[in-house]
Amino acid sequence: MPGASAVAAAQAGTAAPATIASIAAEAGVSIPTVSKVLNGRPDVAPETRSRIEEMLERHQYRRRRQRPTSAGQPLIDLAFHELDSAWSIEIIRGVEDAAAAAGVGVVLSELGGVHRPPQEWLDAALARRPLGVLLVLSNLDASQRHQLESRSIPFVVVDTAGEPPEDVPTVGSNNWNGGLSATRHLLALGHRRVAVISGPSDVLCSRARVDGYRSAHDEAGVPLDPSLTRYGDFYVDGGYEHGLALLSRPDRPSAIFAGSDMQALGVLRAARELGLRVPEDLSVVGYDNLPLTEWIGPALTTVNQPLKEMAGTATRMLISLARGESIPNRRIDLATSLVVRESTARWEG
């Protein structure tokens, strides 16, 4: 028979909020089994886990937000799609600074290059019961979102890989404007064959930077050669391979806008191997303004992307959500700016 509260709710014309006990009864399992699923414990059969997760989602179950305890430091999970560049270090620094100021620890993990966490990673995160989850260049599908939401674990995305749903909190930068300002600078120096080597074509910020590059050409009335648009991988080898191919052409570009500073380093190496001087024979603009760009020769002209500020903003947003506070803006794009150094010059060709 239904309990008294369920009967009262039915008489009032409302559905009783789901509880662990009601989920367990409907699933035909014990209350501890439902609790194990909620806590990310591995010792539940996959079929049983799937059935319980489906019921949690269907009944819109939400665990009561846990109050911080004095036992141990509260944690946030920070997950990167990949963790092998100076770009990642700047994000980590921003997260660590903001988390330390709030007395929160950080658990760092890598997703092996994929833009969506595998279920094994999510289970491990649920078992840790963090205050929240920060995802970098990654996102969750609807089922994964609900797994976090049902445990009252908020998440925030930094530099989203794709276009997330409107209610997903995200922090990024104005990538379109970054691409626009980099290309405007090169066109203003007299370059008319400007190539772009962006990041992966399936990543939102890569496409936005290329859109800015195209808009600068349209604005200046300079014809665009589609063969000068390349999509790399944000890493040195991608810049080197595409740079070598572009600069070996008989109609080579006189300037290259690289979609990351690491790709710009690859372009510089390709130019060196082909006997091209920077900036006399080739101008190069990077993206990110990593600390190393001031120390290479020539010092790199680049677009400053405020990576530490992006990471710090996302971390503070996540901690506010974990405390049950409302946030005024769920989508924040920080401004980018061009930093002119020694790798660009007027084209006299």
Notes on the structure:
The chain has 349 residues and is α/β, with parallel strands linked by helices. It folds into three domains: 4-58, 434 Repressor (Amino-terminal Domain), CATH 1.10.260; 75-173 and 308-334, Response regulator (Rossmann fold, 3-Layer(aba) Sandwich); 175-306, 3-Layer(aba) Sandwich (Rossmann fold). It contains twelve helices and twelve strands. It has helices spanning 4-11, 20-27, 31-38, 46-58, 86-101, 119-128, 142-150, 175-188, 204-220, 236-247, 261-273, 307-322, and strands at 75-80, 105-110, 132-136, 155-158, 170-173, 194-198, 229-231, 255-258, 283-288, 301-304, 331-334, 337-339. It has a six-stranded parallel beta sheet, with helices on one face. The protein has a six-stranded mixed beta sheet with strand order 7-6-8-9-10-12, with helices on both faces. It starts with a helix and ends in a 10-residue tail after the last strand. The model is unreliable at 1-14 (pLDDT under 50).
H-E string: HHHHEHEHEHEEHEHEHEHEEHEE
What share of residues is helical?
Answer: 40-55%
Q: Give the termini distance in whole angstroms.
A: 87 Å
User: What count of domains describes the coordinates?
Assistant: 3
CATH superfamily of the largest domain: Response regulator
Pfam families: LacI (PF00356), Peripla_BP_3 (PF13377)
Keywords: DNA-binding, Transcription, Transcription regulation
GO molecular function: DNA-binding transcription factor activity; transcription cis-regulatory region binding
Domain HTH lacI-type: 18-72
